[in-house]
Automatic annotation (TrEMBL):
The chain crosses the membrane at residues 270-295, 322-348, 368-386, 413-433, 439-460, 496-515, 717-742, 763-795, 807-829. It is found in: Cell membrane. The lineage of its organism: Bacteria, Bacillati, Actinomycetota, Actinomycetes, Propionibacteriales. It comes from Nocardioides panaciterrulae. This is Putative ABC transport system permease protein. It is a multi-pass membrane protein. InterPro entries: ABC3_permease_C (IPR003838), MacB_PCD (IPR025857), Macrolide_Exporter_MacB (IPR050250). It holds the Pfam family MacB_PCD. One of its GO terms (cellular component) is plasma membrane.
Amino acid sequence: MIRASLKSLLARKVRLLMSTFAIVLGVAFVVGSLVFSDTLNRSFTAIFASTVGDVVVRPEGGTTVNGQPSTKTVPASVVARLRGLPEAARVDGNVSAVGTFVVGTDGKVVGGFGPPALGANWTGAPAGHDLPGLEILRGRPPHGPDQVVLDDKTAERGGYALGDRVRLISSGRLSLHPRLVGVAGFPGGGSLNGATLAVFDTSTAQRLFLHGRDAFNDVWVTARSGVSEGQLRDQVDRALPARYDVVTGDTAADESASDLLKAVSFLTTFLLIFAGISLVVGAFLIVNTFSILVAQRSRELALLRALGASRRQVAGSVQLEALTLGLLGSTAGLGLGVVLAVAIRALFARFGLDLSGQSLVFEPRTVLAAYAVGVVVTMAAAWLPARRTGRLAPVQALRDEVAMPESSLRRRLLLGLVLLGAGMGALAAGLFAGVPHAGWFVGGGVLAVLLGVSSASPVISRPFLVAARVTYARLFGSVGNLAGQNALRHPRRTTATASALMIGLTLACTMAIVGDSAKASVDRSVAENFVGDYIVSNVFGGGFPTGIADRMARVPGVADVVRERYGFGTRDGQDQGIAATGAHDTSALGLRMTSGSRAALRDGTVLLQDSWAADHHLAVGDALTVVMPTGTRHWRVAGTFADNPVVFFPVLTTLDTLARAGIPRQDNALVVFTASGATGVQARLDRVVQRLPVVTVKDEAGFAAEQRGPIDQLVQMIYALLGLALVIAVLGIVNTLALSVIERTREVGLLRAIGTSRRQLRWMITLESVVIAVLGTALGLVLGIGFGVALMYALRDQGLEVISVPWGQLGVFLVLALLIGVLAAVLPARRAARLDVLRAIATE
C-alpha cells in the first residue's frame, strides 16, 4: 500500500505540484512572520548591548516612561569622583537628547514616525565586555560648536559627505548648520533601526541639551582588566549616595531592550495574527485540494478495496500522501518564508523601522514551526476526505458516483450554526461585557463565526448558486447554464474556495469601516471642539523650542498664543500621559467643564477628562497619584471636562507643575488666536517656522487632516498584509479550478466532441470562477460590515462616536472580485481549451 501510494503520487506530477502550492503559501506566511519577529528582537538586543558601558550610573528618574531624558542629571563632580576608583579604567559622562532632527539636502527631514531623532556627545568610550560600540568609520570626532558627526545611515539618506554643512533642528535651538567632520557606525554590523544620530563634542552637547550645565544624563564606568561588572558596580555603588541608580551594563541593556520590545510588541502580535489568518486561509485551500484529489482517485482507491485493501489501509494511503505533500510544502514554504520576511522588512522600513543593518535571524523554532504547521495542518485537512472515502462502497466508487450525502450537508449546517452562535456570544462578551482578556474573546469569536459560516455555506449559499445558474442560463445560454451547474454540482468545493476569499475580504471590510469611522469621528470631534484659528505642532509628535511661541505672539494680527505641553508618568504600574497648559488658558482651549471649575486649576492640581475620571473612580477633591521623574506626586482633582481633541491626554495640569515633575520645558503645541478682521496671518506664521520643516501651522481643516494621517498609515499597513492573504485566496481559486479541470477531463472532451468551441469552454470556466469570487466577496462584505459596525459600536465610549461605512470602497471590493474571478480562470481555462479531444474522452 505504501509503494502503491507513492507511485500514484509521483505519477501525477501536475497534481502534486498544485496540491503542494497551497501548503507552501500557508507555511511561508508563518515563517516570514517568525523570521521578521526574531530579527526585530535580535536587532534591538544587539544595539543596546553595544551602547552601554560596563557599569552605568543614572539619576533616579533620569528618563521618563517613554524613554526620553528628564530634567534630572548627574553632576560633573560625580565623574571626577569615580575616576579615582582603583577598579575603574575610565569614566565618561554622556549627554543625550531626543528631538534633534537632520534635514537632508533635499529639504526633507531624514527619518519618520517611530524611530527617534537622537542627539548626543562623543566620548569614544568602549561598550561593555569590550564589545564593538559606535566608532568613527570615516573622518574624525567633533571638536567645537561648529562640528558634528552623523551615523552612516543618516549621512547616506541625507545626502551628506564629509565637509558639508548639515542642517539640524534641535528642541533646544531653532536651527543649526555645523560642518560634518565624521561618520560613525557599528564596525561589526548593525544600525540604529531607522533612528538618526547627531553627535557633538561634550561642551556643545551640554549647551544644546542641558542649557549649558556641567552635567550628564548618565555616566559609563569602564572596568580595568580582570574586574567583573558586578565587582565594579558594587564599588561604584558604595562611592555614591543613594539618589543614584547604579547598574551593570548587562542590566541596563536588558532593561532598555525589554522596554523598547514591549513598546513594539504589537508588531509581533500584529504579524502573528496575520500569520494565523494566512494559516486559516491555507487550511481551507488544503482541505479543498484533498477533497478534489480523493474524488479523482476514487476509482483507484475502490480498485484497491476490491483487491483486499481495508478501509484503514485506504485512509492510510491518503494520509501518507498528505504527509509527503506536507513535508514537501513545508520545505518549499521555508524558502519562500525567508523571501516574505525580506518583503515584510521592506514594508516596515517604509514606515520608519529600518532593519536593513541586521541580517535575518533564522531560529531552530522557525524550522520546527514550519514543519509542524505544514505537516499537521495538511494531515488534518486530509483526514476528513480520507475518512469519507474509506466509507464508500467499492461498487459505488467504481461507478464514479462520489457525491456527498445530504445527511453530511445537514451535519455541516448544524455544526455551522453551533459555531456561529458560540462566536456571536464570544464577540458580545468581548465587545460589550467587559470580561477579562476581552481581546481573546473577540479574536475567538471572529474565528468561530468565520468557521461557522464556512461550514454552513454549502447550504446557506445554495439560493445564490441557483440564482447564478438561472441568471447565467438567461444571459449566456447553454454555456452559462453549464457553468452554473458546475458550481452547483459540488457546493462544498465551491464554498470552500469562496470561504478562503471571504476571510480576507471580511477583515479588509472590517478595517475599512474602522478606519473610515475613526476618521469621521476625528472630523466631528475637531469640528465641534476646535478652538483658536491655528494649531502649531511638531509633525513627529515631539517638542519644539519655546522661543517659537514668543516670536508668534509678536506677529501682527495675533491676539494670543496658548502653549500646550505633555509628559509621561506611571500610575498603578501603567504609563500615563499628562498634558499641561497655562493656568489661565483653560477657557481659551474651550474646555466644557462637567464638574468643578476651570478657575480652580493651579499649580499642584489637575483637571481630568470626565469619562477617564469615571473609569478610574476619581472625583473633584480626590488625589491623583502619579510617579514622575522627580518622584511620586499627589495632585488634587480640581474638575472634570468633556472630551477635547486639543487636549492630548485625559490629565491636564499647569506648565510649572509639569516642569517641577521633571519634564523638559519645551512646547508640544500652540493654539494661536488672531485678532478680529486680521488677514494674511498664516503666511506670517509660516515664515516664523519656515526654517523648521518639522513644525507646521494648520487651520481647522489641516489639523483634522493631520489627525487622520496616522489612521491612514495604520490602515495601509494592514491592507498591505491582508493583500498577502488575499493573494493566497486568489491563487487558491486558480488551484481549485485547475484541479477541477483535471477531474472533468472526460467531460471537457465530450463537450468539445459535441461542438463546444474553445472560446465557449474558456467562457464557461471563467463564469464558474466569477461565481466563486462573487460568493466569497458577498459573504466577506456581509460579515465585514457586521464586524465593523459591532466593533465601532463597542468603542463609542472611547471617543469613536461616528459609525461610517465606506460604501464606495466596498463597491470597489466587489468590482475587484469580478476581476479576480476573470483573472483566476485564465490559466485553467487555457489548459482546458488545449486538451486533446480524443485523449480527453479516453481518460478514466
